[in-house]
Amino acid sequence: MSKAGPATVAAPHALGAEEMDLDVEQQRVAAFAKFSPVYHLASVETAPFAGDCWRLLASVDIEDADAAHFLGVVEKWTAAAEMVMPPVERTDVVAQPSLAGETLPAETTRVRRVLVPRRKSKDCALEEDVVVSRLDTGVYVQFIPRCDGPAKLPFYYPRVSKYAFGYVDAEGGAHGAGRLVVLAKELAAGSAAATAKEQSIWRDLTKKLFKWTVTERFGYQRRVVHDVVVGREPYLAKYSELKAKYAARWVAGWPEQTDPQKFVYEDIAIASWLICLWEQDGARPTFADLGCGNGFLVFLLTSEGYSGYGVDQSARKIWTQYGVEVDLRAQTLEPYRYDAGADWVVGNHADELAPWVPLIAARSGASFVVIPCCPHALSGARMPLVAAAGQSKYHAYVGYITDLAAQCGYEAEKESLRIPSTKNVAVVGRRRTRRASSADIDALVSAAAGEFVPRVPDSVKNEIRLARARARSQKQAAP
């Protein structure tokens, strides 16, 4: 094990949002296990509500929350429909219209919002009123789309004129015991759950409503941190822009054996996030992508006007398709003596190079961003990790990278990226808490340099395999 590994680096520690209260989590899991819904999707069952007859689609008893917790969920869902409707990019609350002249249940509040879709070229934005009513039987929230008929409803929206959730008080008014109900005002008899897709929507909404209401009861613990380093709105706008420009072509023409759906969309997301990060300073920095793999991130950044290069041990087949303006270099890196020669050092799932990124950046006078993947020590070897209670081993490794950054004088910022990978935490070093001396950094580098073993390139591995195969064939052919 490297002397600069866990033996000399401060032990990984729980990092705020990556930590959870195990006692509360056990209570929450026990409450989730009580989810036992009754669905009325195959047969039509009616229920009176708001002076009219609605269809009852689902109900589920809930012991671990009350009406206040239900309303807490309603407030969150009203402000951010995208949390329960993935095709929605964002929710814009545009008004709180007057209720004058309308006949509505008692103590009603109304919010008008706009659901902005992700697929803007295919789906229109939808105006919707969210109406909260307090009745003798409980608390209800109606969702009322404002559009010209069912043909104008987005594909993801239930085929209804309106639908509602309710928290119905338990008989006798017992605290913390009640029933959640899901209701719909149908376009035609039986139409709300006529297809498997529509039935799946109601099951999903019922499950989310139950779990979120229980979570509100035990206290919401955020497990990931989004939109801290880069704002949500600029990121989503940039992502939509780059996806429209690059996704279809490269998914269709991906020459590698790897999954284009993962790599294309993931690198578009990372490129969008990086560009938004760099635009905060109003400059176009140069970059070096260490362990660049297929080079698609380098291609995207270069295509968007950023100057930089990528380096990896082995060239990939796809490299030849990017054009000569994309600077990709096949070489074995010796990180302990490498000068990046760029404003930013990037390590995107760079394996054994990941812990070296802060050190290389410090010695190069650069900023850095690293998205750690598998846990490697500075020696290049896999490192054993002991996670703290309530912490994953991955987040313990993020803590190790963060500690290295601190030793190099950086103020480490962290953000969970919106990418299709569970290894999605970006550690950013763009500000200094102190200017670590070159002697301190050199000492950290020297402690690991003698033990660092670079990965054997794939081309060399193939040559070794072929040589062994030839040797076996010659041995078998010998008299």
Instruction: Return the string of H and E elements.
Output: HEEEHEEEEEEHHHEHEEEHEHEEHH
Q: What structural category arises from helix and sheet content? A: alpha+beta
Question: Termini, distance in Å?
Answer: 47 Å
Which value, in Å, is the CA radius of gyration? 28 Å
Could you give the count of β-strands? 16
Query: How many helix segments?
Result: 10
The CATH architecture designation of the largest domain is 3-Layer(aba) Sandwich
What level of helicity do the residues show?
Answer: 25-40%
Shape: elongated
Give the strand content: 15-25%
How many domain modules?
2
Largest sheet report: 9 strands, antiparallel
Mean pLDDT across all residues, rounded?
A: 85
CATH topology of the largest domain: Rossmann fold
Q: Can you identify the CATH class of the largest domain?
A: Alpha Beta
EC number: 2.1.1.211
Protein name: tRNA(Ser) Um(44) 2'-O-methyltransferase
Keywords: Methyltransferase, Transferase
Enzyme class: transferase
